[in-house]
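Appendix C: a fully annotated inverse folding record. The material below is reproduced so that readers can follow the format used throughout the book. The structure is listed first as tokens, followed by the designed sequence.
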């Protein structure tokens, strides 16, 4: 089944407009650990679920009806079972579980979307006003609410880990000894790169509150290959003389002016012959497909920053060339609507 029902506009419409209610039923299933129970016991009866969740019979019936409609739960005889998708996405507490992603979307992202029309009219992220603290971006506000910040970065890390094979399997890091991970968040990407390429030293460069999360996430064995540098990467100098600069799930957050400025500073930080890697969402060339990218774009403009989007690869290629990079190319069609765009700084010795 095509999960987006592209061949049936009516079915697609019904999925979209009923989605908010069903989405929240899935989150309820996560919070009540329904998917965990079904996984651990290879299914459960209604009475077993009632005992596990503490819900009344009618309320449990309501929940299981909704979860059955999502096709995450199926029934065989008197037992409820996870479907393979639920088993993979929601039945564990592992770092890459979609349960973290959906909790983050529910608590942080989705309340803001009720203000989409007014945010678009005003051209600014007016939904930010619902979040305590100071600062013009969600990321600044979250740093002042540690519990919500942790929930947010758990969601970010889980999604990053799900999408990371597209980067690890396609990035050429064979000549890299020092890689700079700009906006590296809690460090999950840097740690994965260091595990896959043990000869590389990865430096995370991110805002101080986020850098603190990254430092806390490192085990003693990882500290040898993963370093953390705290700073404002929009204003402070980049660490210099690196072989590669990575922007993973970062540039989508910004507008063209900020992106071009970051790319120029990345160029200046690279050694001669070094290269840049941009990994993240790519809109289709005509910007008419990609539900994940469309959701991200709305979130950025309504809540997070007031600008940014899932850009087509052609935009990144043009901006890289403008910043001085050569041999620019994109590997497209990667999982989760992702692409990997690379560019090289000319080797002054040739």
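Designed amino acids, in order:
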């Amino acid at each position: 089944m095509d999960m987006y029902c592209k061949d049936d506009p009516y079915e697609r419409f019904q999925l979209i407009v009923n989605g908010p209610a069903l989405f929240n039923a899935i989150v309820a299933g996560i919070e009540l650990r329904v998917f965990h129970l079904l996984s651990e016991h290879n299914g459960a009866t209604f009475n077993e679920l009632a005992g596990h969740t503490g819900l009344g019979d009618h309320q449990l019936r309501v929940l299981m009806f909704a979860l059955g409609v999502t096709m995450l739960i199926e029934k065989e005889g008197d037992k409820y079972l996870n479907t393979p998708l639920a088993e993979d996405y929601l039945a564990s507490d592992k770092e890459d579980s979609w349960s973290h992603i959906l909790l983050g979307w529910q608590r942080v992202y989705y309340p803001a979307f009720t203000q989409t029309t007014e945010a678009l009219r005003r051209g600014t992220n007016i939904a930010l006003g619902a979040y305590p603290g100071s600062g013009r971006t969600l990321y600044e506000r979250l740093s002042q609410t540690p519990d919500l910040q942790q929930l947010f970065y758990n969601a970010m890390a889980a999604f990053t880990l799900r999408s990371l094979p597209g980067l690890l399997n396609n990035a050429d890091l064979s000549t890299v000894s020092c890689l700079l991970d700009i906006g590296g968040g809690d460090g999950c990407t840097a740690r994965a790169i260091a595990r896959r390429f043990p000869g590389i030293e990865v430096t995370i460069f991110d805002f101080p509150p986020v850098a603190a999360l990254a430092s806390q996430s490192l085990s003693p064995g990882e500290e040898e290959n993963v370093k953390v540098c705290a700073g404002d990467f929009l204003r402070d100098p980049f660490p210099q003389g690196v072989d590669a600069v990575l922007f993973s799930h970062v540039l989508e957050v910004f507008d063209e002016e900020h992106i071009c400025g970051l790319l120029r500073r990345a160029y200046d930080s690279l050694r001669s012959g070094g290269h840049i890697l941009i990994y993240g969402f790519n809109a289709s060339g005509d910007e008419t497909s990609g539900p994940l990218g469309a959701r991200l774009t709305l979130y950025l403009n309504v809540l997070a920053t007031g600008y940014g989007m899932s850009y087509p690869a052609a935009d990144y290629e043009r901006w890289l060339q403008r910043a001085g990079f050569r041999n620019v190319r994109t590997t497209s069609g990667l999982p989760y609507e992702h692409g990997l765009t690379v560019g090289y700084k000319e080797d002054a010795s040739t």
